[in-house]
Structure formats: C-alpha cells, structure tokens
Amino acid sequence: MIIDSYDKDSEPIISLKDFYGEKKYLTEKCLIIFSKRIFEYLLDNFDCQEIGQIGSVNGTSPVYKSHFEGQEFAFYLTMIGSALASTHCVEVNWITGAEKFIMFGSCGSLDKEKTFGKYIIPTEVYRGEGASYYYAAPSDYLTIKNHEKVEDFFIRENAPYTKGKVWTTDVMIRETRGLVSKRKSEGCIAVEMELAGVQAA
C-alpha cells in the first residue's frame, strides 16, 4: 500500500550528487512559483541571475536569484502536481542550498463563505496524493510548518485572509462528490494539488 512507502532506514538508490555534483550553498530563501505570469513579471522587473537548472529528460527549468529590499532570494517556476512539485523542491534545495521555501498559488474553494475574497493560509493538509508518503510517516494530515509566521505577515499588512485545513489531491477529475463531502465534513476549506507532497519533502 502507498502508506507503506516511507522508508527512513535505507539509502536512496539515486543521489542528487550523481546529477548535480556537490550540494551548493548560494542562497537561503526560495520562492516556489506556479504562475507563469508572476514568474515572467519577476524576470521583467527585477535584476535576475540564473544560478542553476532543474534537469529532466524532457528539458530543463531555470532557477534564478534576485534581491528585494536588501534580501536575496531564489525562485523558479515549478511543475503542477504533488510528485513533481515536491521533487523540484528537493532538487532546488540541492542546487541552491535554500532552506526556507515560500510556496503560493491558487486552489479550489470548499467553503465559499470562509474563503471568498480572502487569501487562504493552510494550517493542515490532507494527504490525498502519493508523494508525501515517501517523505513522511503515514498520517491522514500534515501540519503546515510556519503557518503562524505567514499569518503574522497578513496581520501586519492588513490583508484579508482565512486559515484552515486544505486537501491535496493527485487527480482533479477524481474529486468525487463523496470525497468532497468527506473532506468538507473534516473541516477542509480548499483543495489543491501540491501542498502535501512539498510539505512532507
């Protein structure tokens, strides 16, 4: 079963060192970006330097470094889906040395009254996908690390937000009425496709 996939006691067969060489330490912070428009905005409006590439048999994805208000950060356009987004995160950690990742994107609402017109800060995520079970011991939900710090930022900026559980699914067209009802009954307010895998990684 997929819940038996977590193995902390033996070594991986494939090492990132085999693909990228020694781990680099180029920057501490990294933005995980899903929107091509936001990605292109950064490239067009900030002084950006390519510092690495995420390799794949069907092409490469560049990783950039830039600055804002005295802070240096890396950023890249990630793939969609838990398995690919979590793998990209792990690879970018190796390529850049970044340890602090900030991920933001879009999602589907499961509670319009709570979410309409607001940013959503996930506090827990339901693991309705496969990748997270390779990175973290089995459980239905994972707690989202540092969600309180994200909330502090929204309070400081006086930005409209709500917070709560979300659901990561692997297959959007298999979000059945029964599964939606179940997740809603557990308190999930949104559904998306990456968070569980990336948080576990």
CATH superfamily: Nucleoside phosphorylase domain
CATH architecture: 3-Layer(aba) Sandwich
- Under CATH, the topology can be stated as Rossmann fold
The value of Rg in angstroms is: 18 Å
The total beta strand count reads 10
Number of helices: 8
- Secondary-structure element series: HEHEEEHEEHEHEHEHEH
CA-to-CA gap between the ends?
19 Å
How would you state the average pLDDT, rounded?
Answer: 97
- How many separate domains make up the residues? 1
Q: Unreliable stretches, pLDDT < 50, 5 or more residues?
A: none
CATH class: Alpha Beta
Secondary structure layout:
Elements: H1 16-20, E1 29-33, H2 36-45, E2 49-56, E3 59-68, E4 71-77, H3 82-96, E5 100-104, E6 108-109, H4 112-115, E7 119-128, H5 132-135, E8 141-143, H6 147-156, E9 161-169, H7 177-185, E10 188-192, H8 195-200
Parallel strand pairs: 1-4, 1-5, 7-9, 9-10
Antiparallel strand pairs: 2-3, 3-4, 6-10, 7-8
Entry keywords:
8 helices, globular, alpha/beta, Rossmann fold, 201 residues, five-stranded mixed β-sheet
Report what the structure shows.
This protein is α/β, with parallel strands linked by helices and 201 residues long. The chain has a single domain (2-200), classed as Rossmann fold (3-Layer(aba) Sandwich), CATH 3.40.50.1580. It has helices at 16-20, 36-45, 82-96, 112-115, 132-135, 147-156, 177-185, 195-200; strands at residues 29-33, 49-56, 59-68, 71-77, 100-104, 108-109, 119-128, 141-143, 161-169, 188-192. Strands 2-3-4-1-5 form a five-stranded mixed β-sheet. A five-stranded mixed β-sheet has the order 6-10-9-7-8. The model has no long low-confidence stretch (mean pLDDT 97).
